[in-house]
Task: structure prediction
Amino acid sequence: MMLKVALRHAFPGFTLDAAFEAPAGLTALFGQSGSGKTTIVNAVAGLLRPSSGRVTVGDTVLTDSDRGIFLPPHRRGIGYVFQEARLFPHLTVRQNLLFGHWFTAPGRTSDLSRVVEMLGIGHLLARRPAALSGGERQRVALGRAILSHPRLLLMDEPLAALDQPRKEEILPYLERLRDHAGLPILYVSHSTAEVARLATTVVLVDGGRVTAAGPVADMLSDPATAPLFGSSDIGAILAARVDAQEADGLTRLATSSGPLFLPRVAAPVGAPLRLRILAQDVMIATAAPQGISALNVIPARVRDLTDSGGSVLVRLEAGDQVILARITARSARALHLAPGLAVHAVLKAVSVAPGTIGFSAG
Ligand SMILES: Nc1ncnc2c1ncn2[C@@H]1O[C@H](COP(=O)(O)OP(=O)(O)OP(=O)(O)O)[C@@H](O)[C@H]1O
Result:
């Protein structure tokens, strides 16, 4: 199921002219304040009628200005999650979850138990929203959105109102949803960390236009787009799998560029993980380094070099993955780095975005 969006709309002083596709998985709309993210979301939701445009989910047409089609919001089959959970205060969690259900598909209790289990909210069913933490409330809001059997989930900064521990608590559930709900999730964010952890696809919005779009690993490691995410946050995302828990407390991970070792990762063997390797944490050596403390040294090949305000971003190919290194222009010259050169990437730090599925929820 694919969401396709093409919109044009002029406000005084601001013109939206944006087109992108969001496949199943989580598509992050990323851009500065005022770039047009909320306007896009409103147009998809049916809260804004664009002067021209087309919005479809699979075969269903939500908006088509040429054909005069503009479904009202309540007929679009969209589940919403906002910054604030907006639960009904006088209803219990169970009643809140079933609220949309009364109208759509009565008696689907198997759905309820599946969603309750996926979100870990079984022990909260009899409570009212006032007795929930912010993170718990957001989990209930996610559950309510899914139980309305939407074709599409819209999330507008759903974590923005939560403190860091509450964010951490809810991220694994968003990951489950992304991997198992089988529907497109359109997710507004201006947090690079959230995008790196959650997004499948990233759509960059600037001045009402889509300036770039693509898979998250490409967007964060492409020197053309990566700097837009903030210079200290850019780097590679690597797919890995837990390979073994070693006796000395390290966890061995398998990646397509070879094994990596991390301080113990609390995940079972076989669990898939997303690793983040920030460009500033990667050193480049032209010969295999000897006698260094770094555990993770991977053979790689230089793909290209891009000047980036005093430093150089070096794209390295390792296996079928891309690693980005930020080094000084002086080092790049001293090492005679050039496309095709075989090098070693020395990873000073690797962090795990845990909870891809199955373990971090406990
Ligand atoms: N109804 C309106 N009338 C006039 N201008 C509008 C209207 N709605 C939005 N805009 C303008 O469109 C631009 C984009 O706003 P929008 O809220 O979509 O940005 P955003 O990327 O979601 O920002 P933020 O991250 O701060 O929420 C802004 O300049 C805003 O002032």
